[in-house]
Design a protein that fits this description.
This protein has 489 residues and is α/β, with parallel strands linked by helices. Helices cover 29% and strands 23% of the residues. The protein has 15 helices and 20 strands. Strand 5, helix 6 and strand 6 form a beta-alpha-beta unit. The two termini are 30 Å apart. The model has no long low-confidence stretch (mean pLDDT 91).
Length: 489
């Protein structure tokens, strides 16, 4: 399969085997909110971006939730089916008003907020739980935020708007239902598996649960219809986003998101690497290239050690580059690990592969702190790497749009050293001036030298750099000169 991207809806499964079938695959787009049908962990490990359209079906899902709530309160589907069967039965289908009832909303994201807005118009009291959104924000939406322990006994209706995660699996279960108000009614238009279906059926049969409206199920389509056939259950076959408008909207949105990525615009809806939202912009790309180059050079400079453990400390100087903190650490890791990991590495999987490779990273942003050397650049990136007894400190900048090395282990380049193809790094003691010797040796192996440059010395050493027109392997040593790294950036 020779494709760079794939777009799916909810039915198509994108497994690890599917991803392995295409070496070029770099993005998977889900036209919808959930990504249950995509192996996100496998995608992350392969460095594939997974995107969804978080807002595309918001209105449709919220409207369907409200429809289910109203149907649950007034037995609309059951009464309709009875009348069509020839039964005029008003007594059995005595309903209840929603006005004055308490609606508990689990998950106060886009859909949860839209549901609250609509049901407040019915006069419902809205309470909710969301581990991320603070209470002062939900107060502005007319939703009283509270803990789950306090929410269960207050709710007349509970509606779910969270993803299916290990922490939310069977969130509505036997223990939860036992703590709820007698006769509580459950609505799930989110994901199957959040409600323990066996526990819900048991509560319905015992009368402790007054009814349920379900659009999603643990198994779709469900093979056991016991719950669906219960007289107090309203059910639909996963119709939350099943409107003409929503399907058109999510299809257009996911296509536009991929186009935006290609054009370098901010990313939207990235599931497995949200920190990359702005990483594709023209402003950020030179800094990502610099970070990768510094990481690559650092890896070549490090001496072999008994321990594979590697410590990396990253400091960002200047307000602009400090805003790139979420992804520049990953960019440094890409450079460090590119030649040592068996996997293809990029900004998506760098953190995961680093963790598995005994690499630790700390990053600090200094938006107001000046660059720690005398330079015209007001923004810089400093990388300190340590393995065993070997430590190197690299300082660079991409303020001019090019990856420029400003200093290496305290040795500075007054005008900066532009990083590029086929570079050889040598170190000597300050009293040695080996540029002529280096040039002669390279000419002896018929290599054209395009740059020879030395840093300002420290009391201990000075760095010398040669750039050549082709890659070169200096098998022979140069007297009094220590070849430290051969790098192509």
């Amino acid at each position: 399969m020779e494709h760079d991207g794939v777009i799916v809806r909810s039915a198509t499964k994108v497994t690890a085997e599917v991803m392995a079938a295409s070496k070029r695959l770099c993005i998977i787009g889900r036209a919808g909110t959930g990504v249950d049908n995509i192996d996100v962990e496998a995608a992350t490990r392969r460095g594939i971006i997974v995107m969804n359209t978080p807002g595309g079906n918001t209105l449709s899902a919220a409207e369907h939730t409200c429809t289910m709530l109203c149907s649950l309160a007034r037995f609309v589907p059951q009464a309709c089916a009875a009348l069509k069967a020839g039964s005029w039965d008003r007594k059995t289908y005595m309903g209840s008003e929603l006005h004055g009832k308490t609606l508990a909303i689990l998950g106060l994201g886009r859909i949860g907020r839209e549901v609250a807005k609509r049901m407040q118009a019915f006069g419902m009291i809205t309470i909710g739980y969301d581990p991320i959104i603070p209470a002062e924000v939900t107060d502005e939406w007319g939703i009283e935020s509270m803990s789950l322990e306090n929410l269960w006994p207050r709710a007349d209706y509970i509606t779910i708007h969270t993803p299916l995660l290990p922490s939310t699996k069977n969130l509505i279960g036997e223990d939860t239902l036992a703590r709820c108000k007698p006769g509580v009614r459950i609505v799930n238009v989110a994901r199957g598996g959040i409600v323990d279906e066996a526990a819900l059926l048991k509560a319905l049969e015992a009368g402790t649960c007054g009814g349920a409206a379900l659009d999603v199920f643990q198994e779709e389509p469900p093979t056991d219809l016991s719950l669906c056939r219960h007289p107090k259950v309203v059910c639909t076959p996963h119709l939350g986003a099943n409107t003409v408008e929503a399907q058109q909207r999510v299809a257009v949105e996911i296509a536009q998101q991929i186009v935006d990525m290609v054009e370098g615009k901010p990313l939207v809806g990235v599931v497995n690497a949200p920190a990359l939202t702005n990483a594709t912009s023209n402003t950020c790309k030179p800094w990502i290239e610099l970070a990768e180059s510094l990481g690559r050079l650092a890896n070549h400079l490090l001496q072999p050690a008994d321990t594979p453990a590697l410590d990396i400390s990253i400091d960002l100087f200047g307000s602009g580059v400090s805003k790139m903190e979420p992804f520049l650490g990953s960019a440094v890791l890409v450079g460090v690990l590119r030649d040592v990991t068996k996997n293809d590495i990029n900004l998506v999987n760098a953190a995961l592969l680093a963790q598995e490779s005994a690499v630790s990273v700390t990053i600090h942003a200094h938006p107001c702190k000046p660059v720690p050397i005398t330079t015209t650049s007001q923004e810089a990136l400093m990388v300190k790497v340590t393995r065993g007894t070997s430590t190197h400190v690299l300082l660079g900048s991409a303020a001019g749009g090019q990856s420029t090395l400003l200093a290496l282990d305290g040795c500075e380049w007054e005008s900066g050293l532009t990083l590029g193809h086929n570079m050889l790094f040598f170190s000597t003691i300050p009293s040695v001036t080996p540029l002529a010797t280096i040039a002669t040796r390279l000419l002896d192996v018929q290599v054209v030298v395009t740059l020879l440059m030395s840093s300002a010395p420290t009391t201990k050493e000075v760095w010398h750099v040669a750039r050549t027109n082709t890659a070169v392997d200096l098998a022979q040593t140069i007297p009094e000169v220590h070849l430290r790294a051969q790098v192509t950036f």
